[in-house]
Amino acid sequence: MKAYGWTGVLGSLVLYGLAFAIPASRDFAGSWEWPVLVAAYAGLTVLLIGWMQRAAKASPMRFVAAVNGATAAKLLSSVAVVTVYLVAGGEHRVPFAMGLFAAFAWNTVRFVWVSQTLHRPENSPTSQESIR
Questions:
Q1: Domain boundaries along the sequence of the chain
Q2: 54-113 tens-digit pLDDT
Q3: Is 1 helix (H, G, I), strand (E, B) or coil?
Q4: Is the distance from CB of 74 to CB of 48 less than 8 angstroms?
Q5: What is the pLDDT of residue 40?
Q6: Of the candidates 32, 33, 29, which has an alpha carbon nearest to the alpha carbon of residue 16?
Q7: Secondary structure letter of residue 23 according to DSSP
Q8: Which of 13, 62, 70, 88 could form a disulfide with 55 if both were Cys (CB 3.0 to 4.6 A apart)?
């Protein structure tokens, strides 16, 4: 597993554990919703990273489209998840919304980190050899 994979697992575990450390969110952290939310965002990020890596090998335009599409997918899925939870009358509304934001933020940072560390072709105008 690459470094960003281990970092993602470790970060998700830390995020999961932090909910237990915050007194206002302990009940929510003990429910089934919190581990599912953390795991779902980690899984979505893994899928989107795979899409982005395949697109980066194809062409710069596909890479840009994959990054923009992944951002849109994460934003729209976040809105859908929080809307369904709130309309369904979830028991832990504020901790759920804050946890969703934390999971979104962590996985977005992870996604951006991976996107910036992808191997660039040597004939690319942004590669190190062409800058020198």
A1: 3-118
A2: 998 888 899 999 999 999 999 999 999 999 999 999 899 999 999 999 999 999 998 988
A3: coil
A4: yes
A5: 93
A6: 29
A7: G
A8: 62
CA atoms within 13 A on the CB side of 47: 11
Q: Is 32 helix (H, G, I), strand (E, B) or coil?
A: coil
**In the 8-state DSSP scheme, what is residue 31?**
S
pLDDT tens per residue, range 25-63? 999 999 999 999 999 999 999 999 999 999 988 888 999
> Which two structure tokens, joined as six digits, stand for 105?
């933020």
Provide DSSP, 71-101. HHHHHHHHHHHHHHHHHTT-S-HHHHHHHHH
Write down the pLDDT at residue 124.
55
Angle between helices 33-58 and 60-87 (to 10 degrees): 160
Residue 34 · residue 28 · CB < 8 Å? yes
What are the tokens at 59? 């062409």
Q: Would you say residue 117 has pLDDT above 90?
A: no
Give the integer Cα–Cα distance in Å for 44 and 48.
6
- What number of other Cβ atoms are within 10 A of residue 91's Cβ? 12
